[in-house]
Write a structure and sequence with these properties.
about 100 residues; mainly alpha; 6 helices; about 70% helix
Length: about 100
């Protein structure tokens, strides 16, 4: 029962995924400004790639979890946490301390 709830929680972000994918494609196609640092460029691409490939984590979680192991079921949730951390780093990398 817990595995099914975790799987459903992992599917909820797919509701907004088409909009995320559209924004990511536009971000990939856009040009960077001249004063963007290399770190900021790299972390932004890391976030864009991670958030674009999110459905793959769900497919891997379903395919390689026939025995309903909790750790594999949590893979999409961990993936979202990593995406959130990369977004947090990206959004705070341009701020002056």
């Amino acid at each position: 029962m817990l595995i099914k709830i975790i799987n459903i929680l992992g599917l909820i972000p797919l509701v907004i995924y088409p909009f995320v994918l559209l924004a990511n494609v536009m971000s990939f196609a856009g040009e960077r400004s001249a004063n963007t640092t290399m770190f900021n460029t790299i972390i932004s691409y890391i976030f864009l790639v991670l958030s674009t490939l999110y459905p793959i984590s769900i497919l891997i979680s379903w395919k390689f979890n026939p025995s309903n192991k909790l750790l594999i079921a949590l893979l999409p949730i961990f993936y979202l946490i990593i995406c959130g951390i990369s977004f947090y780093i990206w959004s705070n990398s341009g701020k002056n301390n």
